[in-house]
Amino acid sequence: MIHYNISYNNPHRHYVDFEFTTSTLGKEKMRFQLSAWRPGRYELANFSQNIQKWGAFDENNNPLAFKKITKDLWEVETKDAMEITVVYNFYANQLDAGACYLDEHQLYLNPVHCMFYIVDRMEEEYTLNLDIPKHYKIASSMEQKGNTLSIKGYDLLAESPIICSDSLQHGTYEVDGITFHLWFQGECKPDWDKLNTDFIAYTKSQIKHFGGFPVDEYHFFFQITPYRSYHGVEHTKNTVLLLGPGNEIMDKRYEDLLGVCSHELYHTWNIKAIRPVEMYPYNYTGENYFRTGFVAEGVTTYMGDMMLYNSGVFNWESFAKTQNQNIERHLTNYGRFNLSVADSGFDNWLDGYKLGAPDRKTSIYPDAALCMLMIDLEIISNSDGKGSLHSVMKELYEDFALKGKGYSEDDFRNICVRFGGLKVAEIFENHIYGTMDYIPTLKSALDTVGIELKEKKNTNLSAQYFGFVAVKEDGKVVIKKVEPNSVTDKNGIAPEDEITKVNGNKIEGKLSDILKDCKKEVVFTIKKKFSEKDITLKVGNHYQLLELVKQDNATDEQIVLRKVWSNN
Fold first, then answer.
1. Which of 236, 376, 429, 488 is 20 to 30 A (C-alpha) from 23?
2. What value, to the nearest 5°, has the Cα angle with vertex 304 and ends 549 and 353?
3. Which residues have a Cβ under 8 Å from the Cβ of 470 and sit 6 or more positions away?
4. How far apart are the first and last CA of the chain?
C-alpha cells in the first residue's frame, strides 16, 4: 500500500506539499515515476518541471541517497531500509480541465500531474489523506471516508481528479440504476431541474446505443470561472469541465455546457473503454504513438453532438450549428491539403494542440468529425437505415472493450467498410488517410438525407474582406492566419506580422468595428521584425464558408433516411 499525505501552507504561493510512505519490500533500490503526459491529451507535458523540492527518508527519518534517472524518474538507495517516505512539493497554478490549481479558495488536483507510481508496483492500493480546512468539502470519484480517499492501482488514481473547497454545489440524477453526480466549483447558479432533464435525456440515449455503461457511477466536475473559458477532459469514471463566465452557463453558454458534457460522457466508452491497441496499456513515460485519433476525438466530437440531437435536447438548428462550426474550422485550415487527419493525430505528439507552423496539419476534432458524419450517412444509406456509425461503435465496445483488448486501425476501418461499403472505403482512402477535398464527398453524403451545403459569408470581416485572422496580444493586433493566395498573401503579409494602423489611424477598439465601415479598399500599416510600411488591400470575399440547409424538394426516400439519421 502507498499512503499519501497532501497538505499546503501559504496557498497564494500555489505549492502543494506531498508526502508518501510505503514499504521497501526489502529492495535495495526503488524507482519512482511521474507521468510525462496525461491520457486524453496526446502531447508530452513533462509535469516534473513543477516539482521544486524532492527528498527521501527511511523509517527513522534518515535521508536516503537518490538520483534522477530521467527527467521524471527518481531512483532511491533503500538498502537496510524497511520503509521509505518521499517528500516533495508541486507548483499548482494552472486552472484548466486537466491540470492542478491551489489558491485561498480551493485545492484542485489531477493526480496524473503530481503523484508517483513505483516502478513494478503500479497495481498497489493508494490512500490519500487530505489535510484541508475543516469547512471544505471533497469532490472525487474515489472511495471516501472523511478526508481520506482510496483507490486501487495507478491507472485509476491517474484518472481521479479531486476538488476541495467550501463552495462546492452538488446534485445527482439517475439513469438505469447508475448515479451521476454534478459538482459545481465557482460562482454560478445551476438550474437543477433544467440540468437534470437534459442530462438524463442524452445520458439515456448514449447508454441505449451502447447497451450498457462501463462503470458503476459517474461524476461531472465543473470548474466555473468568472471569465470566458471552455475545456473538457475525460476520465474513466468522471470528467472535468472548465466553463465560464458563471453568470452565462445556464443561458448564453448553456449549449456549450451541454456540448462539452455530452462529448466527455461519450468518451467513457470511446477512448476510456474502447481503447487503441497502442494504448493497451498506457505508457506514462513517453509518447504513445497512434493514428486513430480520428476515432478517439473525431467520432466523439460528432457523436457527442448527435446524441444531443437524437435525444431531443438539441433541435435541428442547434445541431446544424455544431456541424457548421466543424465545417468552418475545416475550411479555414489549409493544412487539410498538406497532412491527413490520421497523420495529424499521430503528429500531436510532435507539436501538440497549438497552431504551429501555418497550414501544416489538420485536426482530429472538426476534420475527423466531418469524416465520421460522412461515414455515418453512407452506412445509413448502404444499409437502408438498418445500420449506422452507432452499429460500428457498439461492435467495438462489445468485441474489444468488454473483452479487455485494444482495437487497431484495420479493425475500425474494416467494421466501417463492412457496414458502409465502397463509399466508406473511399472516405478512408481519400480523407482520413489522404488530403483530397472533403466538400464533394460531404455534399454527396448529405444528399442521401436531403441536406445541401450553401455558401455563406464569413462573419469575421478581416477574414471575409482580406483573408486574414488577427488577435489582440499584449495590446498589439497580430495576424495569426492568412489564406493562401488571398489579397493579404499576395501582398506579402504573413502570420505574426503586426497591424499598427488602419487608414493611417491607430487601432482603438475592435478591428471588426473599424472594418465594417470600409468599402472598396483599406490601407494597413504592417510592422514586421525589421520593417514597417503601408499596404493597400482591396476588399474581396475570402475564407468562404458553407452551411447545412434542408432541401425544400427532398424526396420521400431522403426524408425517411433523414428521420433514421436524426432519431437513430
1. 236
2. 100
3. 462, 477, 478, 479, 480, 499, 511
4. 47
What confidence score (pLDDT) does residue 547 get?
Answer: 98
- Whose grid coordinates read 490601407? 523
Is the bond into 495 cis (omega within 30 degrees of 0)? no
Which amino acid belongs to residue 41? R
Amino acid at 396: L
**Parts of the chain belonging to CATH 2.30.42.10:** 461-538
Q: What is the pLDDT of residues 392-450, one digit of tens each?
A: 999 999 999 999 999 999 999 999 999 999 999 999 999 999 999 999 999 999 999 99
Name the residue with cell 486537466.
98
pLDDT of residue 568: 82
Adjacency order of strands within the sheet including 125-130: 51-58, 83-91, 15-23, 2-7, 125-130, 148-152, 143-145
DSSP letters spanning 499-520:
EEEETTEE--S-HHHHHTT--S
Where would I find the beta strands (DSSP E) of 375-466?
451-456
Whole-angstrom distance, CA of residue 161 vs CA of residue 141: 8
Helix-helix angle 366-382:389-396, to 10 degrees: 100
Strand order in the sheet with 66-70: 66-70, 73-77, 29-33, 117-118
Comparing C-alpha atoms, which of 150, 486, 446, 464 is closest to residue 320? Answer: 446
pTM value is: 0.97
CATH superfamily, domain 461-538, is PDZ domain (2.30.42.10)
Say which amino acid occupies 337: F
Q: CA 445 to CA 295: how far, in whole Å?
A: 19
C-alpha cell at 141: 470519484
CATH class, domain 167-268, is: mainly alpha
Q: Which fold has domain 287-451?
A: Neutral Protease; domain 2 (1.10.390)
Question: In the CATH scheme, what is the code of domain 2-165?
Answer: 2.60.40.3650
Give 7's strand partners.
17
pLDDT tens for each residue of 55-79 = 999 999 999 999 999 999 999 999 9
Residue numbers of the chain with a pLDDT score lower than 70: none
Tell me where in the chain the CATH 2.60.40.3650 domain(s) lie: 2-165
> What's the one-letter identity of residue 204?
K
Average pLDDT, the chain: 97
